[in-house]
């Protein structure tokens, strides 16, 4: 079996695909991954060749956050989306020959291109989401698209999801259909249904992120796709951890932030005020130690599964992968949400009692101090330990079996 995985997005979109890839290869499957060029080293470390998609996502994200790039508006997005569909299709189609199934996630235009490849080849296509609120349901509202705010006076989620569908058609429909016509495929009249399908997968842990049943979709919740990380921690980090009490970790992963220096300074001061040491993850925010005191240590890419098991709390942006990794380690969390699904994860952490949801994306000494008082409470640690043992680690194995069963049976594709 040959599986094509397409993930045009951040580290949080790509890392779970590597978890699925590991499970598939353990079962003898051949796997090809298409992702932004930022993750070439990550895939090389996993022993997977990368087919790069588009320009650096880090550069685009930094431009968007810092305001150094062109603003994404309702007027500019359709043109950019059309270019992304065509470019992604060219990259994916070039390596798709002989594949048995296509699995896609991330940006909608890129996923639409992946589906176009699957449609041309006549193979199954699966869309995977990593959090429930990306999928239509009467139980939650949709996310708003750039330049297309949701009317605050509307509270009926079904009405909001109808607007979401209209917005997706307006933003992405022309680019998707122009490209489909160019390669001889029929047009689509409902972009959301076309890309997500009637049976999307949800790769999220049922305890952390349960799917509430809805007649609107036949959602398959597999559990989170976790790639086992056996890398040892760097020797200098080990020495720092051994030299004192468990520190608080601060990092925003593949998420740039405004005023990174001020953010790092405020975080260090707030953590010190709690009598704790600090480990700073540089990440795409380029966070750094702001003085030469010995109670802070800055790191690059490390094994977070090992690190989070040795910290007293994790302060992060609220990506699905980081939230799951911290929860699995039993580490209390402070989620400082920046965008997209991150407010959802912040609320889930607070609702489960395993940490605190920071109020807004801008971290200050006062705001983090308040959140840390919750996260560092012994009761929060006890609750985090209790939740940790409920989290499943077999999600990628479950998904791999579903794909093998899908390819093995003679039925219409799941994308139908």
Relevant terms:
single chain; 416 residues; alpha/beta; Rossmann fold; 2 domains; 7-stranded parallel sheet; 6-stranded parallel sheet; 13 strands; globular; disordered C terminus
Gist of the model:
This protein is of the alpha/beta class.
Compute the number of strand runs: 13
CATH topology of the largest domain: Rossmann fold
Order of helices and strands: EHEHEHHEHEHHEEHEHEEHEHEHEHHH
Q: Unreliable runs, pLDDT <50, ≥5 residues?
A: 410-414
CATH class of the largest domain: Alpha Beta
Main sheet characteristics? 7 strands, parallel
Into which percent range does the helicity of residues fall?
40-55%
Query: Order of strands in the sheet with the most strands?
Result: 3-2-1-4-5-6-7
Q: Give the overall shape, derived from the CA principal axes.
A: globular
Distance between the termini: 21 Å
Structural class: alpha/beta
Query: In DSSP terms, counting alpha (H) and pi (I) runs of 4 or more, how many helices?
Result: 15
